[in-house]
TrEMBL record:
Protein's UniProt name: DNA-binding transcriptional MocR family regulator
DNA-binding listed as a keyword: yes
GO molecular function: DNA binding
Keyword tags: DNA-binding
Lineage top rank: taxon: Bacteria
Length: 72
């Protein structure tokens, strides 16, 4: 999958998740299932987007302590 398409998909997920977009926990397994691609492709694409600065990542301090993605 092309990285730009993944970014647009994730960006839309984050902005549509709340009235004022803050962050969203993204399941790479669910995204891969919805897009019909391998989980490793999604994980690699998300990692590349974080490294490029197009997404930011953090961990929630409270349970469930999941990884979240934020728009810069």
């Amino acid at each position: 999958m092309e990285k730009e398409n993944l970014y647009q998909y994730v960006h839309t997920m984050i902005t549509s998740s709340t009235h004022r977009p803050k962050y969203m926990s993204i399941s790479s397994v669910k995204v891969a299932d919805l897009l019909g691609i391998a989980v490793s492709e999604v994980e690699n694409g998300l990692h590349e987007l974080v490294m490029e600065g197009r997404l930011q990542t953090s961990k929630l301090g409270q349970p469930p302590n999941c990884e979240i993605y934020l728009l810069p």
